[in-house]
Amino acid sequence: MKVAVLGATGMVGRTFVRLLEGHPWFRVEKLVASERSAGRPYGEVVEDSPDEFRGLEIVSLGEFLEDPGVDLVFNALPASLSREVEEKLAEEIPVFTNARAHRYDEDVPILVPEVNPDHLGLVEVQRERRGWEGFIVTNPNCSTAVLTVSLAPLREFGIRRVHVATMQAVSGAGFSGLPALAVHDNVIPFISGEEWKIENESRKILGRIKGGKIEPAPFEVSAIATRVPVLHGHTEAVFVELARGSVEDVREAFESFDPLGRLGLPSYEKPLIYTEVPQPRLHRDRGRGLTVAVGRLEKSGRVFKYVVTGHNLVRGAAGGSLLNAELAVKLGYI
Amino acid sequence: MKVAVLGATGMVGRTFVRLLEGHPWFRVEKLVASERSAGRPYGEVVEDSPDEFRGLEIVSLGEFLEDPGVDLVFNALPASLSREVEEKLAEEIPVFTNARAHRYDEDVPILVPEVNPDHLGLVEVQRERRGWEGFIVTNPNCSTAVLTVSLAPLREFGIRRVHVATMQAVSGAGFSGLPALAVHDNVIPFISGEEWKIENESRKILGRIKGGKIEPAPFEVSAIATRVPVLHGHTEAVFVELARGSVEDVREAFESFDPLGRLGLPSYEKPLIYTEVPQPRLHRDRGRGLTVAVGRLEKSGRVFKYVVTGHNLVRGAAGGSLLNAELAVKLGYI
Amino acid sequence: MKVAVLGATGMVGRTFVRLLEGHPWFRVEKLVASERSAGRPYGEVVEDSPDEFRGLEIVSLGEFLEDPGVDLVFNALPASLSREVEEKLAEEIPVFTNARAHRYDEDVPILVPEVNPDHLGLVEVQRERRGWEGFIVTNPNCSTAVLTVSLAPLREFGIRRVHVATMQAVSGAGFSGLPALAVHDNVIPFISGEEWKIENESRKILGRIKGGKIEPAPFEVSAIATRVPVLHGHTEAVFVELARGSVEDVREAFESFDPLGRLGLPSYEKPLIYTEVPQPRLHRDRGRGLTVAVGRLEKSGRVFKYVVTGHNLVRGAAGGSLLNAELAVKLGYI
Amino acid sequence: MKVAVLGATGMVGRTFVRLLEGHPWFRVEKLVASERSAGRPYGEVVEDSPDEFRGLEIVSLGEFLEDPGVDLVFNALPASLSREVEEKLAEEIPVFTNARAHRYDEDVPILVPEVNPDHLGLVEVQRERRGWEGFIVTNPNCSTAVLTVSLAPLREFGIRRVHVATMQAVSGAGFSGLPALAVHDNVIPFISGEEWKIENESRKILGRIKGGKIEPAPFEVSAIATRVPVLHGHTEAVFVELARGSVEDVREAFESFDPLGRLGLPSYEKPLIYTEVPQPRLHRDRGRGLTVAVGRLEKSGRVFKYVVTGHNLVRGAAGGSLLNAELAVKLGYI
Question: Interface pTM (ipTM) of the complex?
Answer without folding.
Answer: 0.96
